[in-house]
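About this split. The held-out portion is used to measure sequence recovery: a designer receives only the structure tokens and must propose an amino acid at every position. Recovery is the fraction of positions where the proposal matches the reference. Here is one held-out target exactly as it appears in the evaluation file.
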């Protein structure tokens, strides 16, 4: 009897204690605070690096401002530059300029564009919709490319799977700038199927969206492929086949559903990445949006406008990825101690 009691005690000792609800809430809250603090730190780093880079760019901002205002690119005397430097604070130390700018951001004041003579917030609000529309169109197109390609090549013979993986790797590594120029030369200038100068119409959105979608389709396809091939080895595949379901039906209705989970997670990163990539692609296709505004603002050292666009894109990227992390913390408690 004592042996039975001793064995029962040992077995009970091996049982891991279950975390109390209070401990789970504390762990979740602590993880959330860490993730939010990390996001704020990244945003602060983005603001600081943007400010420092723009401050050391060659060219005097007061001279550029006067040349833009007058329409004459000429040398300016110190007497002409002094009022401008005093008005915009260009004559103050870099540290003081940084603290003043950071204080403005804390009060949601992005400043005034001296190039366009308008508040930065108003300029960004007008140009954000075309950029956001292009990013969403590219994301949908990337999914349309990735899913059929994965169904065609994943989980089959080794050569076909290797071909599919190789194509995805090449697609993911293609530079967006190079893809855009190639599409522009072939389909806009050569075949004249699309306008050379892009617009907000659907016809003017096709080539820019393809440019952004091709590399992203490679990343999404690679993520789907890995999980797809692992799911093909799971017991539920054999069970479904034993019930008489065709292989195509199993792949489409069961395996693909499991394989999409990593790619959905990747889409959170993709939206932020597409917003930043759209800036470059819009410049290639001369498309309305934040791209052209940013290129002109950099060339004219319009500090307020450049930093406003960069901070906005960084903020959206951080918020989207933070939202994905928080959703995972809620859905899968096992990740709370690892994020």
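Reference sequence for scoring:
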């Amino acid at each position: 009897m004592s042996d039975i009691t001793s064995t029962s005690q040992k077995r009970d000792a091996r049982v891991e204690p279950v975390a109390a609800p209070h401990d789970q809430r504390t762990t979740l809250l602590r993880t959330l605070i860490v993730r939010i603090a990390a996001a704020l730190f990244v945003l602060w780093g983005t603001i600081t690096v943007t400010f420092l880079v723009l401050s050391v760019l060659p060219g005097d901002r007061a001279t550029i401002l006067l040349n833009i205002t007058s329409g004459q690119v000429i040398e300016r005397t110190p007497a002409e530059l002094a009022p401008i430097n005093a008005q915009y604070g260009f004559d103050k130390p870099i540290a003081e300029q940084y603290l003043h700018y950071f204080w403005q951001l804390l009060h949601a004041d992005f400043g005034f564009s001296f190039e366009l003579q308008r508040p930065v917030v108003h300029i960004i609000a007008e140009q954000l919709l075309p950029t956001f529309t292009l990013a969403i169109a590219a994301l949908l197109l990337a999914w349309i490319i990735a899913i059929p390609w994965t169904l065609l090549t994943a989980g089959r013979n080794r050569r076909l799977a290797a071909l599919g993986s190789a194509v995805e790797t090449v697609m993911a590594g293609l530079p967006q700038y190079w893809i855009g120029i190639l599409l522009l030369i072939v389909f806009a200038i050569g075949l004249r199927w699309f306008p050379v100068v892009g617009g907000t119409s659907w016809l003017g959105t096709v080539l820019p969206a393809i440019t952004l979608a091709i590399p992203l389709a490679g990343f999404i396809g690679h993520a789907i492929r890995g999980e797809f091939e692992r799911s093909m080895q799971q017991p539920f595949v054999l069970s479904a086949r034993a019930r008489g379901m065709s292989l195509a039906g199993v792949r489409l209705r069961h395996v693909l559903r499991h394989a999409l989970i990593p790619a959905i997670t990747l889409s959170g990163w993709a939206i932020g990445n597409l917003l930043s990539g759209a800036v470059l692609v819009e410049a290639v296709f001369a498309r309305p949006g934040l791209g052209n505004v940013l290129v002109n603002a950099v060339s004219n050292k319009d500090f307020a406008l450049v930093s406003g666009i960069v901070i906005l894109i960084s903020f959206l990227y951080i918020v989207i990825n933070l939202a994905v992390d928080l959703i995972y913390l809620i859905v899968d408690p096992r990740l709370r101690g690892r994020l």
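Annotator remark: The longest strand covers residues 112-113.
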